[in-house]
Design goal:
The chain is about 45% helix and about 15% strand. The protein is α+β, with helices and mostly antiparallel strands. A three-stranded mixed beta sheet has the order 1-2-3. The protein starts with 11 loop residues before the first helix and ends in a 6-residue tail after the last helix. The C terminus is likely disordered.
Length: about 170
């Protein structure tokens, strides 16, 4: 009789690697580390306006020439127009960080393609600051006299607008 297998919780990344490996391989990403760690590689500011598309490996003609076997690849990155110049200045640093990540000189060049960047949807929003009593009273006075559902919606909208203002603008 077979013994029951013990189930344990595992990180989602450990399960996904095997599933998307074939798709990543088609785009040249032998390891998904560049994609998973893009924010650490490019930095938060540049990662917000860029995304790696593929790694183009040079064709290796037949033979055992070690000089041709160690040719570095080209990383193709989609960058939004506003970040293109800043990204261009940071290319050498990004190449250095990726090569340090893999432990060998795998990327020798970065090719920039301008275009829109798809960002993952973030469900986490910062909590709004609580309204001061005088702000709440002023808002209630403005919304007073409206239909119940409309008034509640206007109150929520007003609270969001007022709480998002910085203290310096007030």
């Amino acid at each position: 009789m077979a013994t029951p297998r013990k189930l344990s919780a595992r990180p989602l990344a450990a399960l996904i690697d095997g599933c998307i490996e074939a798709a990543l391989r088609k785009q040249g990403f032998v390891a998904g580390d560049v994609l998973r760690q893009w924010e650490a590689v490019a930095g938060p500011r540049l990662a917000a306006g860029s995304q790696p598309i593929e790694i183009k490996w040079p064709r290796r003609p037949g033979g055992d020439d070690p000089e041709q076997a160690m040719q570095a690849a080209t990383l193709v990155v989609r960058v939004e127009g506003a970040f293109a110049l800043e990204f261009d200045y940071a290319k050498a640093l990004i190449i250095e960080r990726i090569n340090a990540l893999f432990g060998w000189r795998c990327i020798g060049r970065v090719l920039i393609k301008q275009g829109p960047v798809t960002r993952p949807r973030s469900t986490a929003r910062p909590a709004p600051r609580p309204l001061a009593p005088e702000e709440r009273a002023a808002l209630t006075g403005l919304v007073g006299g409206t239909e119940e559902k409309l008034g509640a919606a206007l109150l929520r909208l007003g609270e969001a607008v007022i709480s998002s203002r910085s203290a310096k603008r007030d």
